[in-house]
């Protein structure tokens, strides 16, 4: 089986390759093609993978190319993990938003909209090339904003593109751990959009164990989400929110913490990874990865007084590479699995149309991912989901039409942007920061990375 990784010079690629090295089952991936527009990063990561494979018998062969069609040709699966504009672009997204007093996180609020506007055209170009060069391939999208990008690609690839995220998986594992349950034996009732979902139940042997967690103050405060959101708020919700909902529920505190921080998350990662790429090795990669994980959402924890990440919580992270491998196995080998994925809604959530991409438990087999019927969301959650989905649709419309007015509308409608005037200034600020957006507003869809 052949796997192509778009964004193959990216920092997280060794995680995927490590999962492949541990897979010895029949039908496993035997060849990996890395594609990246940055040939220096591509060379660095290729070297790290070679070091990683030392002493491993029958390690998947690795080749690298900067030619997209060459990378796609013959692929069974295409793993998309691109970052348009790089980490410098992420840092700029954060700065422009914070200067206006609003959130600049890469997937949430103004930062997520800016990232989406410059990423969607590239993702759509990739979808067109997959359809032309590798029409039988399955695309696994991890490119952020994952739900938005998956929906953009699904308009051209249908159900052959599936979005993945490790956040809901990690949340389910943490809840299972504190309840003393094996995550493999638990059914996780989770639904929403990417980075905007709620765990509403965890069933073991047909019994929902979440009420027991919500009723136990010590247990509820013992894991990451309990410390981040506070036990009183979790009991009020009657659910455990995805960690990214902290940006919505505690927006004022988070924005203040971000503005007071020595540097933004994007700037920190840019400096960190610049040091790694200057002298790449597997050991340097592993140390950098550990620091990255330990400092994840550090400003949010500072704002909430949650303290440093607990070692047990770090161990229960979702591991997107494991989700990707499980998804590939289920499709390639027809090994039925249940995974939380980003797929088209169909009739899962009545508040959204059939083509809206949502994040929900799915049954996966050789025919792809099939969303499982779920109970309706409560009104407060439905309000957030529909509001953010409306924003995503405006982003898609702006990227397709090149309309600056539609881009302003996308910013203005977001729950975390508090003024139409601010929305207008954000568009101006992002257009100045990203020349590609000026090109977008002049000519609509573009393929340029």
| Mean pLDDT across all amino acids | 93
How many separate helices? Answer: 22
Low-confidence stretches: none
Strand content: 15-25%
Category from helices, strands and their pairing: alpha/beta
Tell me about this structure.
By secondary structure, the chain is of the alpha/beta class. It is 53% helix and 15% strand. It has 22 helices and 13 strands. It has a six-stranded parallel beta sheet, with helices on both faces. Strands 7, 8, 9 and 10 form a four-stranded antiparallel beta sheet that branches. Strands 11-12-13 form a three-stranded antiparallel beta sheet. Helix 5 packs across helix 19. It is globular and about 50 Å long. The two termini are 28 Å apart. The mean pLDDT is 93.
Provide tags for this entry:
single chain; alpha/beta; six-stranded parallel β-sheet; four-stranded antiparallel β-sheet; 22 helices; 15% strand
Task: Give a brief description.
With 449 residues, this protein is of the alpha/beta class. It has 22 helices and 13 strands.
């Amino acid at each position: 089986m052949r796997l192509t990784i778009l964004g193959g010079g990216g920092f997280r690629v060794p995680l995927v390759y490590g999962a492949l090295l541990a897979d010895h089952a029949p039908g496993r991936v035997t060849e990996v093609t890395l594609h990246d527009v940055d040939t220096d990063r591509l060379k660095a990561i290729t070297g790290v993978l070679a070091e990683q494979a030392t002493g491993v018998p029958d390690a998947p062969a690795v080749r690298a190319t900067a030619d997209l069609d060459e990378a796609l040709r013959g692929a069974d699966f295409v793993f998309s993990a691109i970052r348009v504009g790089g980490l410098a672009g992420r840092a700029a997204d954060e700065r422009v938003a914070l200067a206006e007093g609003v959130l600049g996180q890469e997937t949430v609020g103004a930062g997520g909209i800016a990232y989406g506007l410059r990423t969607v055209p590239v993702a759509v170009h990739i979808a067109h090339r997959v359809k032309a060069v590798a029409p039988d391939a399955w695309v696994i999208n991890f490119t952020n904003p994952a739900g938005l990008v998956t929906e953009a690609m699904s308009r051209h690839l249908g159900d052959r593109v599936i979005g993945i995220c490790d956040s809901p998986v990690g949340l389910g594992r943490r809840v299972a751990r504190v309840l003393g349950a094996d995550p493999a034996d638990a059914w996780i009732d989770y639904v929403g959009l990417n980075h905007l979902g709620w765990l509403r139940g965890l069933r073991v042997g047909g019994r929902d164990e979440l009420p027991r967690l919500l009723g136990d103050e010590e247990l509820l405060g013992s894991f990451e989400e309990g410390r981040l959101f506070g036990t009183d708020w979790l009991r009020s919700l009657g659910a455990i929110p995805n960690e990214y909902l902290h940006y919505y529920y505690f927006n004022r505190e988070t924005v203040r913490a971000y503005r007071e921080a020595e540097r933004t998350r994007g700037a920190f990662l840019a400096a960190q990874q610049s040091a790694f790429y200057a002298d790449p090795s597997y050991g340097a990669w592993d140390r950098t990865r550990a620091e990255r994980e330990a400092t994840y959402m550090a400003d949010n924890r500072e704002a909430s007084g949650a303290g440093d990440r607990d070692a047990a919580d770090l161990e229960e992270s979702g591991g997107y590479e494991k989700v990707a491998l499980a998804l590939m196995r289920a499709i390639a080998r027809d090994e039925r699995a249940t995974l939380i994925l980003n797929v088209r809604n169909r009739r899962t959530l009545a508040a959204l149309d059939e083509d809206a991409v949502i994040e929900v438990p799915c049954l996966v087999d050789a025919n792809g991912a099939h969303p499982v019927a779920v109970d309706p969301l409560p009104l407060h959650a439905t309000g957030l989901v529909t509001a953010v989905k409306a924003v995503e649709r405006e982003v898609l419309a702006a990227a397709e039409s090149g309309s600056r007015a539609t881009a302003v509308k996308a910013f203005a409608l977001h729950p975390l942007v508090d003024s139409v005037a601010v929305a207008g200034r954000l568009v101006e600020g992002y257009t100045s920061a990203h020349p590609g957006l000026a090109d977008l507003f002049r000519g609509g869809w573009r393929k340029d990375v």
